[in-house]
Amino acid sequence: MLERRPDGVLAVGQTVSLADVARDPSMGTPSYVYDLDAMAGEARELRAAFEGAPHLVAYAVKANSAAAVVKTLVAEGCGADVVSGAELLLALRCGVLPDQIVFSGVAKTDDELDRAVLAGGAGIGAIQIESVEEIARIAARAKAAGRVARVSMRINPGVDADALDTHSYIATGHDEAKFGVPLPSVADALDRLANAPELRLVGVGSHVGSQFTSTDAYLASARALFGIAKDVRSRFALSFVDAGGGFGIDYGDGCPARPADFVRATRKLQAELGLGDLALYTEPGRSLVGAHGTLVARVIQRKISGDRRWTMIDAGMNDLMRPALYQARHRIVPVVLDASAPVRPYRVVGPVCESSDDFGLHDLPDGELREVAILDAGAYGYSMASRYNGRPLPAEIFVRGGAVVGKNARRPPEEWVEDRLRAGI
Ligand SMILES: Cc1ncc(COP(=O)(O)O)c(C=O)c1O
After folding, report:
1. Which atom of ligand 1 is nearest to the CA of 154?
2. Which sequence positions are flagged as catalytic?
3. Domain annotation covers residue 116
4. Which residue's alpha carbon is at the smallest distance from atom 2 of ligand 1?
């Protein structure tokens, strides 16, 4: 866990000081520091909520694709939800069994489908069908491979976007959304599946959005999904229902529902609707890793003009895009706290030449401040990072058992320059 020590230093598990990480040239800043033990704990807590019933926690690799993170969750019995051929390859390289992989995405290429169909002895656990039109293409790849591919039908329950209570960019279950088979097209999809001997429908699924802080929208989607599942299983031998991901975390403004609450409520509904014999799949990303990653940044400059105060740091929107993209707020605190220093609101901004490179106003001490910690940055942080403005990707530091057990060092600027020069013209 990330804790403030009595000496005022923020540390992972009391022993890995974020100040040491920041000031060690082999790590430095900007650096993501991940608490692998805490991530494993999240997976254990979530899996316990299934009380031994058949299930799969398919970790959404897109949230944090560091192999050390994926392997930590695999060791806790998680599978993987992947959304590209590369994520599929990574999951397999991290030891995820092909059976425990579901592949979502509205525009899977033939190459990616081939990787999914040919993985292991029988292909992956399920290719999520995201449109009626995609069925023929998947069937053609399975036929070309001489295999029967397991598929799941991702439905779009068409829930009201406002009822989803999340940012519109991460709402995925309303009519306008590009994801999933719309309800009016389900019957057509099932007819096509019934006439596709190369495909075996093993599940139905939905994923309606992300960062849900209550179970309401998730349960509304599950109810629609389970209604469909009851009809579908009269024609197809289903083995699972996949209620998706979306469990929120507390970014500082509260998140009453724990991931386990989502699972318990969904299992109860599943039983009430007579589907308790089917395995329950979930696809959590953020909730397993989000709270257990901290972005450590060095203070480069402070600026005061009248009652406006800025703190410029060496981490920016290229390292953590969420504030710029979703207007998301992350708590920002000093790495070393001098409790006697007067505190005032400072606008914390990054080095990128965009006004959207802004982490918002945060109460920070006046005077000397060497480093800050951007909290709850373990999900959709590094995985969305870029090298905009020629800024190298940040470092990643992996902590387990109170020690640094791995580093993905920051790339030297020269690497970006060589990449830009690569075309050789
Ligand atoms: C299909 C699918 N499953 C799972 C997830 C993971 O969502 P979260 O990180 O909110 O749990 C996403 C996120 O976008 C998704 O698109």
Report:
1. 1
2. 353
3. yes
4. 207
What is the spatial distance between Cα 166 and Cα 189, in angstroms, rounded to a whole number? 29
| CA 186–ligand 1 middle distance (angstroms) | 22
Is the same domain home to 271 and 343? no
Distance from the CA of 305 to the center of ligand 1, in angstroms? 42
Task: Quote the ligand 1 centre to 175 CA distance (angstroms).
Answer: 18
CATH number of the domain enclosing 416: 2.40.37.10
Task: With cut-offs at 50, 70 and 90, classify the pLDDT of residue 354.
Answer: very high
In a domain, 45, yes or no: no
In the chain, what's the furthest Cα-to-Cα distance? 73
User: Domain end: 239, 262, 282, which one?
Assistant: 282
pLDDT confidence of 163, banded at 50, 70, 90?
A: confident
Ligand 1 pocket, mutate which of 210, 326, 380 (most atoms under 8 A from CB): 210
Same domain, residue pair 133 and 219 = yes
Measured between alpha carbons, how far is residue 284 from residues 82, 259, 304 in Å? 11, 8, 42
Of 395, 170, 200, give the one whose Cα is nearest residue 293: 395
Cβ atoms < 10 Å from Cβ of 9: 17
What pTM was computed for the model? 0.97
For ligand 1, the distance from its centroid to the CA atom of residue 12, given in whole angstroms, is 27
Mean pLDDT of the chain: 97
Residues with CB under 6 A from ligand 1: 60, 63, 81, 104, 172, 207, 210-211, 244-247, 283-287
C-alpha span between 309 and 130 (Å, rounded): 48
What residues make up the domain containing 18? 2-34+291-421
In whole angstroms, what is the distance from residue 343 CA to residue 351 CA? 23
